[in-house]
Design goal:
Two copies of one chain form a homodimer. With 300 residues, the first copy, chain A, is of the alpha/beta class. Chain A has 15 helices and nine strands. The first copy, chain A, has two domains: 166 residues, NAD(P)-binding Rossmann-like Domain (Rossmann fold), CATH 3.40.50; 117 residues, N-(1-d-carboxylethyl)-l-norvaline Dehydrogenase, domain 2 (Orthogonal Bundle). In chain A, helix 1 links the parallel strand 1 and strand 2.
Chain lengths: 300, 300
């Protein structure tokens, strides 16, 4: 196969059907693509199978049946295990099992360095790897309104665009392999600072004896305004720390951001501070809460 | 005089006719209030005088003629000098010159402690002091769309609301004297973090070899989105560091925030970091640029 992916013609394999992957795969199915899924826990795929997706017994079986494989899993280590397997890209891995010409699209937020390694190995095997992490959260995934940041060969990015547009409204190609991950790091850097600002503003409000909800009314609409203040600050005030986006995953993202910044020789003191605070939060047992649980550190 | 301020009946004195005060006074005039102005440099008031405002030769003459005095000047020291004068509130000061019952409304971003001192001294003289700093920037001032954060007696806040509504769309009473300033500190805390995040995201994008404008396209609309990313990041990319809001004034605001947080026993590490960076920026000679000039620190 070659060329642009098309509904009705192309088969898309989905690995990872969690809070993000499941609705994303659902939109791809609804757009008319054939969809094959594999998930570590099969019950997570039940809804997709009922909607018409097929089941693959293993990731490699899935890869062998697909024109494009989408991976959206937890951590870079999971990505590495899928793509390279135990034997560095042999039969038990996506890289070993995919047919020549297959697109391998990692939508996990992962490291730019790993994305480059995958792209090199893929290219050597006649495969086409892209990194395409997303922003927009579970809600963006459910509403097919994700912003998708693509790294890889331009022709490949163009070819998979019909698939990506089934899941997102903003699809931007940022450059060669790893550049999608780099753009996602920019996103996480901005989010981390925003959350820090929201938590400190709310903590200050409480400390000064103000009504926090009235403070949000005053500051939310002006030049301090942000998605975080509008969407997460009210949850903080309601004591609702359910994810949203897991602290444990955000810690992973910030570790990737700091490692990559160091590799590039960049100083990002705000991100360093945020990473330190989120590591503290994780160590204190808040990994399963949403990122706005950062506020707990300011309650002590 | 007593009770609610009304267009056609009440005279409003304006001290400070800079980039914020001039359009604000213009809106008050347009709403039908009689307006008297004084400014250190008389030519700054020319437009207002042509529009029908009257001129006062001194702040005390202005205070003696007004039912409400609005001050919006640069620094807490300027506020203190106006309200207390050289003699601690004697004839040469607003507190000494205002007629009993006059509303004294400080819209400068100043310290909560100073606001409380003014309110105490005002109360002892039969005057009504309010702190009412604003957010929304020069554009909000021009468009009468400011968010105004009010501290002081509730009845007084209610009485001046018709005047404040001539300048802003969001008017919220946050509590007793100083609480408007406290709410404004929350605003500046959130803005500082937002700016830090925008600058680091853009710096990372450049360091990673990405097209910064494309990164903004990807991250601006999602959960990293903020007023800062939407409005100031594009100016950074255009190399346009004109204020907007002066670095020198923002440093003042952050100093007030840290002093007040310390007084309240609050830890605000993100704000501390931002304050450190802005002090560095000021020391490097960028005080007359806009707050987004923080990006200069990331260009080195």
């Amino acid at each position: 196969m070659s060329g642009t992916l098309s509904p009705g013609e192309s088969t898309v394999g989905f690995i990872g059907t969690g809070v993000m992957g499941a609705p994303m795969a659902g939109h791809v199915l609804a757009a008319g693509f054939d969809v094959v899924v594999w998930a570590r826990s099969a019950e997570k795929a039940t809804g997709l199978l009922e909607a018409g997706a097929q089941w693959a017994e293993t990731p490699t079986e899935l890869a062998a049946r697909a024109d494009a494989v989408v991976t959206i899993v937890g951590y870079p280590a999971d990505v590495e295990a899928l793509y390279f397997g135990d034997d560095g890209g042999g039969d038990g891995s996506l890289l070993g099992a995919a047919r020549p010409g297959t697109y391998l699209i990692d939508m996990t937020t992962s490291s730019p360095a790993l994305a480059r390694r995958i792209a090199e190995a893929a290219s050597a095997r006649g495969l086409r790897a892209l990194d395409a992490p997303v922003t927009g959260g579970d809600r963006g995934a459910r509403e097919a309104r994700l912003s998708i940041m693509v790294g890889g060969e331009e022709a490949d990015a163009h070819a998979v665009e019909p698939l990506l547009r089934a899941m997102g409204t903003t699809v931007v190609h940022h450059g060669g392999p790893g550049c999608g991950q780099h753009a996602k790091i920019c996103n996480q850097i901005a989010i981390a600072a925003s959350m820090l600002g929201a938590c400190e503003a709310l903590a200050y409000a409480r400390g000064a004896g103000l009504d926090q909800a009235r403070v949000l009314e005053s500051i939310g609409a002006g030049s301090a305004g942000s998605w975080t203040l509008a969407n997460l600050a009210p949850r903080i005030l309601a004591g609702d720390f359910a994810p949203g986006f897991f602290v444990k995953h955000f810690v992973k993202d910030l570790r990737i951001a700091l490692a990559s910044a160091e590799e590039l020789g960049l100083e990002v003191p705000g991100t360093q501070l945020a990473a330190r605070l989120y590591e503290t939060l994780l160590a204190a047992g808040h990994g399963e809460e949403g990122t706005h649980a950062l506020y707990h550190l300011y309650e002590r």
